[in-house]
Amino acid sequence: MMLPDTISIRSVDIYPWATYEDFKMAFLNLRLPDDEIKNAEKNIEIVKNNLRHDQKPDASISYKNAIKNYNEAAFNKGILYPTNSLLNPFAWYRFFQAIKNGDFKQKE
Question: Domain spans of the chain?
Answer without folding.
Answer: 15-75
